[in-house]
Amino acid sequence: MSLAQPPKEFTGINQEVNTPKTAVGWPAIYSSVKHVFGAMPVARGIKTLLNLNQKDGIDCPSCAWPDPDGHRSSIGEFCENGAKAIADEATTKKAGPVFFQRYSVKEMAEKSDFWLGQQGRLTHPMLVREGDTHYKKIEWKDAFDIVAKELNTLSLPDEAVFYTSGRSSNEAAFLYQLFIRAYGTNNLPDCSNMCHESSGVALTETLGLGKGSVTLDDFEEAEVIIIMGQNPGTNHPRLLTTLEKAKKKGAKIISINPLFETGLLGFKNPQTMEGLLGKGTTLTDLYLQIKINGDLALLKAACKVLIEKGAIDNEFIKSNTENVEEFLAQFSKVSIENLLEDAGIKQEEFETFCSILEKNSKIIVCWAMGLTQHKNSVATIKEVVNLLLLKGSIGKPGAGTCPVRGHSNVQGDRTVGIMHKPSAAFNETIETNFGFTPPQHHGYDVVEAIEAMYEQKAKVFFALGGNFLSASPDTEYTAQALKNCNLTVQVSTKLNRSHLIHGKTALILPCLGRTDKDFQKSGEQFVSTENSMGVVQKSQGVLEPLSDEMMSEPAIIAQVAHATLGEKYKIDWLSYANDYALIRKDIEKTIAGFKAYEERINKSGGFYLPNQPREGNFNTKTGKAQFSVNPWEPINVKPNEYLMMTIRSHDQFNTTVYGLNDRYRGIFNERRIVFMHPADMLKDAFKNYDKVNIINEFEGVRRIAEAFIIVPYNIPQGCLATYFPEANVLVPLKSRADGSQTPTSKSVVVRLEKI
Ligand code: SF4
Questions:
Q1: What is the CATH number of domain 95-190+425-602?
Q2: 3-class SS string, 166-180
């Protein structure tokens, strides 16, 4: 097996699988303390935690769940996974030149992702050339010269690819896109291509804006909150506090998920006596354990019942929407029975679901990857919108759409220009403001960039954060694509597998993190981010950087731009690094909604960007919200095959592995797991903990994920779940969501082979 995948060693599951019924509570406090004080001295840990998510403090580098506009808990405005993210970044461990002398690239690649992440902060720029076995320290100037030389040697700017991870700040992202467009390409793939791109496409086409419409306050007014394809207990934990508050205000919570996720069942709020000493709050009122990818079928069935029952908002539909006739006409050919069969939902559960929807109109639908990473994801999210439009649940308090972003500034990056398909209007503004004509043709998204590198159409890969290799699908194909490059550059805080599977020449450029103080020529700097509800807020580090050799993301980009483009345009790249207010000034004059940016960002708590659907306005071609007809077709799975979804464990954030446990699913000390229904195990003669290989043969290409153990679990029959990045090798690059090209990581057809 190549070194592109995590090693196939078992670490040894060491407990019977037993899933708790409530999330958070004392175990979360214990876990937070263990991670934070295990990574740094107590004083440093306390200082960091006390500033986390405070106004004018550090914006959590993990998910994008918003902070309260008003009061924020002074003892802890963060969750366990926020604490883990901080421990991971603010650790005092260092992976410097001595470390890289000790371990060859191959030796590091033979280690687990958990081990790689535990080696500490990257402290110096490092270089490895073709034939070298070890990374060696390099001076920053020399590193920038190597990048500039490679970029300026390419025959076309489109032979370079510039990736962005969702951690990059607005300032770094805006400067990055400006440099890349001045350089001459729109090859700006970003992590949202692999996560909420389907949401952006569906919401833009139906409501005119690719973002959610609700605010945090809406949850306290909602009558019904539906959580689809999302596991907030692990991926957006402070949503549980919001759900508890909504529940206390009388909201009904409906969870739709193939797994019974502990975080959706019960919540012990560690900031309340009840949570610490009592039995906590039961969250979900109705749990629909849907089959993988059954969401569209269920939503369509519910729409049909609401229409037949007349439980719809005709006035809203008449004055705010379009295409309702085509939408209604389709239902004469729709069989609810077949849809429920495909969704795996029983009639009586469905009737309860519909009766709750019939009686209420303040409905919020939240979703994450469980809806966005399927071939029909755009259609499914459009069906979510259809349901909300039928109920008039858009553009009023307590109602609307809530795609919950998994990375702290992934929404902000897109807002400030990280997009491979810029609009003509955006290009005109760039030309007017910066005096150069940006490229008009669309660039590569993630899957296209991987193909271009594999086919050697692209020869330079530059990543601003992230772990591209491990986050991407089709690991072996992606690995070859990266190896084909002349140069790969990773701007990173921590060591990961993308540093070890690299181009002929590879650079690691160590950057400051959110927790680090950032001093530039004009003084101490802060950056800004945008959360899932469109709030732009300040983030300022409080810790002395571990090394003088680390540079901030904006400073690295300014230096690369200066080295590559020099005086080619009337843009003083280096001045941007001296004072980030200059970047914000240019964001203000280039991107809508940032008027008086500097003044408003310095106001505690930041500011909301405009959101037309929130106000009941729809920036579509006709100014009306769009009903859509979304045909339903179940995925064809043969008798000996299963539909597999890749998931995160509770000790993981994206591809960063904080530990080997998945406490809420009762899994301890093992990641090479296949979650399988006991009846399926019986049917295929598998016993608990049998060892298997997992095989995918999409379009005749055999992909194999070796050495997993089977764990009996409450998952719908015919469905399996595995962790990524271990199972990403099985996700075919060519299997993508229609309309958004998001890899279909949540519905991969596989079969199991006993070993
Ligand atoms: S909910 Fe998300 S943003 Fe908030 S502290 Fe937890 S991980 Fe960080």
A1: 3.40.50.740
A2: CCCCHHHHHHHHHHH
